[in-house]
Write a structure and sequence with these properties.
49% of the residues lie in helices and 10% in strands. It contains 31 helices and 17 strands. The chain is elongated, with a radius of gyration of 35 Å. The chain starts with a helix and ends with a helix.
Length: 759
């Protein structure tokens, strides 16, 4: 009975596995056919005629198509409007490997590719240079990962070819072409394995178009234009117009042509066109080269190994060499040189010819290339290279793309938000912990305004340049990040400063000592965060621990060049940045905790400001307002206006200037958004904030009672608490949880804030 059940179960299991394998085989076959993985030369040529745009492109055009296929998004920032290429978001991989910020670097890299496309040839090596950890490699890898994904789409199709030689049962004789006629009328491309005597692949991935003569190619291009399949004026890449077969393929082709007495159709029967996909893992069209001493390609004789017995007699007299190595594997794709300038110069002098002539000479053959070469280097090695006697020779063959550190804290946070949670494996990260680290990193990179020689002068932008020179590092950080301007400025000064924000951002861009060249790297700050997470005083990553780790970091002057710079007007002063961020955190926590207490009805400060604006509007127009209490028309209330202005007005403003400036801003908003209600929070958020602060300053004792009650509840010592204090503390607890705190992290910041107030 048991044996019978076992046999029945085994049969059922075998049936299930067989069905599963049948399904897998069917899907694989359908995918193979749908992707047109193997074609005859004739079928491939039909594809070229039907879709010339896909098949008549070199490596640069292919990469440009990769970039364009993912689309763009316009990013409006205080420092200007930028186009962001969506492939760098890495959405196809769940955002893993996303490049935060770096819109200028993206634009520069794409511009270089566009220049290659316009000229029809790749004649320069693209060198991304910048400080260590400025996302140079990340940018290149994001591009190549996108290319890998694109190569699996219909538009991303690419083909190479192999030589197929059938067995004697398919073709008479010993494949010696000794005058025997063929017994097979069609191509050998789709023969099964048993019918193939020898298959010679092309390791260089020669374009199948090279099987046609230059004259035949030119005729094909003209026909495609005449038939409207290619737009008139289309730039045909130079490699497709003038390129030729690799040495091995040329010798095979010529031998076959001689054996078939000049019959090209017979030669092309041996061609199997095969689709290939870009792959970094398998070094197919995407290859990264690390600093090393070896040459990046080599050749070896095919006929010196066991393949000799399987080659047709007509080919066995040929000295066939196959090539290998990074240059070879990357052909028709991307070759990446990591830290190129760390290699001895003699190890890559050949790139002078390889980039300019798309050719590399090996021991027995010359390698003809269609590849985009991307390299990275830090500034230290580039500076040294610029002093080398050979620099002028290299300069004309290298396209330099500057990749500085990020200058917006919001972009920097995005890096840590992706990396740190993975490294901490579930440990709670308190609000502001990553933000403190990101702000510190950016502060160390900022340069004092007016020191870069850029043009953002007073003649074009009013007094903007003079105002910009007064910015503290934290104020400049806020301007770059969200367009915030200091409240200490007058309305005119704020307007002038906003008008020069974009020019300020570009001020140092074209200098050797550009903004973002020196400062703390994301790698260094990541270590700070991981160390802070190990602080035994906390069971979470606390912003307090981050500040403590930063204080330790800034003591290590001997380890970091950016810590040894002389401070200028508050800039380049890392210890002072830690102190400033400590104060910033205290202010931020004050606002956050007071808001979470709910002592004032949400939006009441907005109502106060809106009421004030109604009186200002009436005063400006000389109109009267309807008094809700009496139902009569009355003049604008001077006391209401003065009460608000006492809190909001900056030194140097007059009441009239201040009021008219506010009304002008409201009017400008209505012109831009005629169908929308005025968003006072957007326009006057800083003023709302100050009104809120004024309210809580008058209620400090109430705030402290609620905080003390909160700590007692968290510590399990709530005995004797008044009901109203307990209720307020529980509300604070719930609201802080909604803001991302847990009990432990909330207790940490409230206790820290209370201690700080008392000192």
């Amino acid at each position: 009975m048991v044996d019978g059940q076992r046999e029945s179960a085994e049969r059922a299991g075998a049936s299930t596995s067989q069905a599963l394998l049948d399904g897998i085989a069917r899907n694989a076959r359908e995918t193979f056919e749908r992707q047109r993985s193997i074609l005859t030369f004739d079928a491939w040529l039909d594809e070229v005629i039907a879709h010339p745009r896909r098949h008549l492109r070199n490596a640069a055009r292919y990469l440009m198509d990769v970039v364009e296929s993912f689309g763009t998004v316009e990013v409006k920032l205080p420092t200007g409007t930028f186009r962001r290429w969506r492939l760098f978001e890495q959405e196809f991989d769940g955002g893993r490997g996303r490049v935060a910020g770096q819109e200028r670097v993206q634009a520069a890299l794409v511009r270089v590719l566009e220049n290659f496309v316009r000229s029809g040839r790749v004649d320069r090596l693209v060198l991304l240079h910048g400080p260590n950890g400025s996302a140079k490699t990340s940018l290149i890898q994001a591009l190549t990962r996108a290319a890998e994904v694109y190569s699996h789409t219909d538009d991303g199709v690419q083909y190479r070819f192999n030589w197929v030689f059938p067995t004697g049962s398919v073709q008479k004789g010993r494949l010696g072409f000794g005058g025997a006629s063929s017994t097979h009328a069609g191509s050998y491309a789709h023969l099964d394995a048993a019918s193939v005597e020898a298959r010679v692949p092309c390791e260089l991935k020669d374009h199948p178009l090279f099987l046609l003569t230059r004259g035949d190619r030119a005729a094909l291009f003209s026909r495609l234009v005449d038939e409207g399949r290619l737009p008139s004026g289309t730039t045909i890449p130079d490699v497709l117009k003038n390129g030729d077969l690799s040495v091995k393929n040329r010798r095979i082709y010529d031998a076959l042509l001689a054996g078939y007495h000049g019959d090209v159709r017979e030669v092309l029967r041996h061609v199997q066109v095969e689709r290939f996909y870009l792959s970094r893992r398998y070094r197919q069209g995407v290859v990264a080269v690390e600093p090393q001493l070896s040459v990046d390609a080599f050749s070896r004789q095919v006929t010196a190994d066991r393949s000799l017995a399987h080659l047709p007699p007509a080919l066995q007299h040929l000295a066939l060499y196959e090539t290998a190595g990074a240059l070879n594997d990357a052909n028709r794709g991307v070759l990446e040189f990591n830290d190129l300038l760390k290699r001895p110069l003699d190890a890559w002098k050949y790139l002078l010819v390889a980039t300019e002539q798309a050719q590399a000479s090996l021991d027995h053959v010359s390698l003809f290339l269609d590849v985009v070469m991307l390299a990275s280097s830090n500034e230290l090695h580039l500076d040294a290279f610029k002093g080398h006697p050979d620099w002028p020779s290299f300069k004309g063959r290298i396209e330099l793309v500057t990749a500085p550190y990020l200058l917006r804290a919001s972009d920097e946070i995005a890096i840590y938000s992706e990396q740190v949670p993975r490294a901490l494996t579930g440990k709670h990260i308190a609000p502001h912990a990553l933000e403190i680290a990101a702000r510190f990193a950016v502060l160390t990179r900022l340069e004092p305004p007016g020191e870069g020689g850029g043009s953002h002068g007073d003649s074009e932008h009013g007094n903007g340049r003079a105002v910009a020179r007064t910015l503290t590092p934290l104020e400049k950080l806020a301007l770059y990040d969200d367009g915030s301007v200091p409240e200490r400025l007058s309305q005119k000064e704020k307007k002038d400063l906003r008008s020069v924000a974009a020019a300020l951002y570009e001020e140092h861009a074209h200098n050797d000592h550009y903004e973002g060249r020196l400062g703390a790297s994301a790698r260094e700050i990541r270590v700070v965060l991981l160390n802070a997470a190990q602080d035994r005083r906390y069971d979470h990553l606390s912003p307090i621990a981050v500040l403590d780790e930063l204080r330790e970091l800034v003591k290590a002057k001997s380890s970091y060049e950016w810590l040894r710079r002389e401070p200028v007007r508050g800039y380049r002063d890392a210890p002072a940045f830690v102190d400033a961020l400590t104060q910033w955190l205290a202010r931020t926590l004050e606002e956050e905790i007071r808001g979470a207490m709910g002592l004032v009805k949400s939006g009441s400060h907005v109502e106060t400001f809106e009421r004030y604006l109604k009186h200002v509007s009436a005063w400006t127009k000389g109109e009267k307002l309807l008094d809700a209490a009496t139902g009569r028309l009355a003049e604008a209330d001077a006391e209401v206006m003065k009460g608000v202005e006492a809190v909001l007005m900056s030194r140097g403003d007059t009441a009239e200037e201040f009021r008219r400036s506010l009304i002008a801003q409201v009017g400008a908003y209505k012109l831009e958004h005629p169908d929308d209600a005025v968003d006072y929070e957007l326009l006057f958020g800083n003023y709302m904030k100050r009104l809120n602060e004024e309210f809580y300053a008058a209620r400090r004792k109430v705030v402290e009672r609620i905080e003390e009650a909160f700590l007692k509840i968290i510590d399990g010592d709530a005995r004797g608490l008044e009901a109203r204090n307990r209720e307020s503390a529980e509300q604070l607890r719930q609201n802080l949880h909604r803001l991302g705190y847990n009990d432990s992290s909330a207790r940490t910041v409230i206790a820290w804030l209370m201690r700080k107030r008392s000192t």
